[in-house]
Amino acid sequence: MLKRVITAIVAIAVFIPVCWFSDRFAVWPVAMTILSVVAAWEMTKCVGASKHISLLIPAFFASVSVPFVCWRFPGNPWACILGIYVLCLLWTFAADVFSRGKIDYEVSAASFMGIFYTAFSFACLILLRMNTGSYRYLLVFIGPWVSDTFAYLTGRAIGKHKLIPEVSPKKTVEGAVGGIVFAALAFVLYGWIIKRFFAPSIDVNPLFMALSGVIVAVISQIGDLAMSVIKRRYGVKDYGNLFPGHGGVLDRFDSVLLTAPVLVILSQIPALSAYLV
To answer: CB of 114 within 8 A of CB of 230?
Structure first.
């Protein structure tokens, strides 16, 4: 427990300055790209692709190039991203063909799918920061982390019914509901704080903030469980050990990764985006 607390304190001490200087010196894009690269290594190692250099090449190429494209072309990066993934897919197919059976198709498919997911999600974190200003991008962390924390606390306090024991034995229905409720409240509180103290001109709708909190919490819990499915499939306890007591990047950001693309989509819809911070 002490190790987890110390790691959390250190992580927060690093995270706050990164957010504070996120609009300067390319701090945010660089930080997200580093996390994307580490996540790529953790994913390829988990699924058994790290032993094949031919699969590591497209994995690391995507983990760097997709965030880079979103940094340099935040207005419309989609064509470039599609091109990168088509190139990586062709490379992966070629690696399968010319390996003469040395690469299992399941390994290459799992590697490509995992890198597609992680690189794109970290790239979406860059898009959120660059396209939506100084406040909205933090929702992608507030929702999942509040949901995770209060799902754990609620589950410990009143949890009786297992959620999906085959995937995550300790998660309960009561915990999941508690996480959703507190995430909704956190979104409303965050919107009020931003409007009251930082940006009075923002038109924050508490009802829409609460609804967004519910959506984000549900999606973040699905993302968490999905990454747990992969770990169970490959018999891995943690994806890595970058954060002692907490695991790797994919263990700490599992619930964030699926949330980021959803917030990007919400931000692309003017009628909805207008009521978010």
So the answer is: yes
Residue 66 burial (C-beta neighbours within 10 Å; 0-12, 13-18, 19+): buried
* Residue linked to tokens 């989609």: 78
| Calpha distance 143→215 (Å, rounded) | 9
Rounded distance between C-alpha atoms, residue 225 and residue 211, angstroms = 21
How many whole angstroms from its chain centre is CA 114? 12
pLDDT in tens, 17-74: 999 899 888 999 999 999 999 999 999 999 999 999 999 999 999 999 999 999 999 9
Higher pLDDT, 134 or 272: 134
Q: Measured between alpha carbons, how far is 209 from 212 in angstroms, rounded to an integer?
A: 5
The closest alpha carbon to 153, from 125, 124, 182, 131, belongs to 182
Q: How many CB atoms lie within 10 A of CB 94?
A: 12
Sign (positive or negative) of CA dihedral 33, 36, 40, 46: positive
Domain residue spans of the chain: 1-131, 133-277
Phi, psi of 110 (to 5 degrees): -65, -40
Distances (CA, A) of 173 to 131, 155, 161, 165: 36, 8, 6, 11
Q: Which residues pair with 168 in a beta bridge?
A: 164
List, for residues 211-251, the tens digit of each pLDDT value: 999 999 999 999 999 999 999 999 998 999 888 878 899 99
In degrees rounded to 5, what are phi and psi of residue 219? -65, -40
Residue type, 230: I
Query: What is the DSSP code string of 67-124?
Result: HHHHHH--SS-HHHHHHHHHHHHHHHHHHHHHTTTSS-HHHHHHHHHHHHHHHHHHHH
